[in-house]
Amino acid sequence: xxxxxxxxxxxxPVVLLIGVGFVAGRLKLLRGESVRDLSNLVFxxxxxxxxxxxxxxxxxxxxxxxxxxxxxxxxxxxxxxLLLTRGLNSRSAVLALAAIFSNTVMIGVPLVxxxxxxxxxxxxxxxxxxxxxxxxxxxxxxxxxxxxxxQAASGTAPRRHIAxxxxxxxxxxxxxxxxxxxxxxxxxxxxxxxLHPVVERPLKLLGDAFGPxxxxxxxxxxAQASIGPHLKGAxxxxxxxxxxHPLLMxxxxxxxxxxxxxxTVMVVAAALPVGANVYLxxxxxxxxxxxxxxxxxxxxxxxxxxxxxxxxxxx
Length: 315
Hints:
Layout: H1 6-26, H2 32-56, H3 65-86, H4 90-98, H5 104-154, H6 162-174, H7 179-191, H8 197-223, H9 231-255, H10 260-270, H11 276-285, H12 289-314
């Protein structure tokens, strides 16, 4: 495979930028406080500009929602299956979420941008717009119900009404910094007004900076992760996330006669490593934090090989 091969040319910039961040982290060129500030810059400034501009200027009539809907059906079935097989408890729910929740923003966006261009990004952003809303709401409701049941069983807290749990979960997902600019951009696109160059150009500059900065941040995070004691469990979760998830997505899509770029982007999204939101969930509920952290790191490293295979087959 030559350096100008489409798959390799899409993955090499991703790997090299993550490597730059990893080396910088190992050499301690950035302090822990600086990493947190960089994370805020990525999530609260750069990605906001990228998501809003892409959706505000998108041709919405070209979007294929069937592949996106199928993505969530496959992810939901996989989540519930893993939860039932591992036991109905909050720890199992966190680990099941790790097996289906992809790093669609920090790794998915630059990867799809390099490989499939603006058309691929539109399909990915359609997925991202509902990614947190759908999967995090599902996980939040399940976790809140399981935690409430566990606390009630131990006598540490009364049961909370399910309606309050569902309402709070939906509110938290909609007001998340990722879906919100996509939804606003989509609503703006419906007006047909378009973006004036005075507004569009700075948004483009900010959005163009997102990919490189986000990937360097991934490397910095990997440099700080402790993997050794949880390597076996992290490899098992990585196998589910990087192999089982895309295989199920591709099989379901082909069985229903879907194909082309929409299905390709959905399968690549399923093949992405574990997303950072799972780590936040594990921290919030204090369940399997070390294992989830190791899974994020291991799946990110192994994904370099597995995504190469997935993209090669899809091509």
